[in-house]
Amino acid sequence: MAVQNPFFGKREPDTFQSRQPSSALGGTTTTTSTPTAAPATRTAVSTASSATAEGSGSKLTVGPNIKLKGVEITDCDTLVVEGTVEATMDSRVIQITEQGAFRGSAEIDIAEIHGEFDGTLTVRQKLVIFSTGKVSGKIRYGKVVIEEGGQLSGEIEVGLGGGARMSAASGSSSAASSAALAAA
């Protein structure tokens, strides 16, 4: 007679509990097994999709305490900078968090700056500098929004056609004086 091994036997469905996915690796988790988890999941997904404008496409996140140096970033729809990046890039969206810093050259459709940008920045559509943001260097933009406390300094060009041009001689512009740049 053969002895049946319990490891290969039939499992009882009651004794098996499903695990909830953890976000220990920083990934986004979606759970639908419990009704209480569904609203939080929808909020996380809607926040992520609103941040990338369409919610699809390639996204690169440089996490906190990470330094990315001497690279050329291409074919990236959204770059999220939480650490430090020294690079050249052409992308659709850049988001720099409060702790984030970008140094180098970037050609972007939409830039959202909470941290620091230093270098050459060309924003084809909209540059948004939040109250904790500091942007310096050679800056060109289509439209600009600066919250109170946000800083913009360096050689600043309004419009990408080369028509209107205003330069900040030195120092940093506050939100009040930058509003004059935006109106030009």
UniProtKB/TrEMBL annotation:
Residue ranges with Low complexity bias? 21-58
Residue span of region Disordered: 1-59
Pfam hit, one: Bactofilin
Query: InterPro entries, alphabetically?
Result: BacA/B
| PANTHER family tied to this protein | HYPOTHETICAL CYTOSOLIC PROTEIN, POLYMER-FORMING CYTOSKELETAL PROTEIN
| Family, similarity comment | Belongs to the bactofilin family.
Question: Under what name is this protein listed?
Answer: Cell shape determination protein CcmA
Q: Which organism is it from?
A: Acidovorax ebreus (strain TPSY) (Diaphorobacter sp. (strain TPSY))
Q: What is the lineage of its organism?
A: Bacteria, Pseudomonadati, Pseudomonadota, Betaproteobacteria, Burkholderiales
